[in-house]
Write a structure and sequence with these properties.
Elements: E1 7-12, H1 16-30, E2 37-41, E3 45-50, H2 53-62
Antiparallel strand pairs: 1-3, 2-3
Amino acid sequence: MRADHPHKVKLSCHDVAKWENILLSTLSVFGVDSNRWQSESTFDDMTFYFADEKDALLFRLQFGEYVIPYVNNTEKQTYF
């Protein structure tokens, strides 16, 4: 967990075109400001960290079909 971006949303998608859509939509809604959100990616998933819980909610609502449920209860999670 990132102390300055505690609201985590993890997505999984195996379609490159959909990944591009997710990233372009994220940039258009939240901008490129790293104070607002940050991300990490692996081959199979991408994790977004938001500073504001409302931004995490908006992101989760927009891309809910790709959200991976949390299994680690030791981190601060944003559930909706």
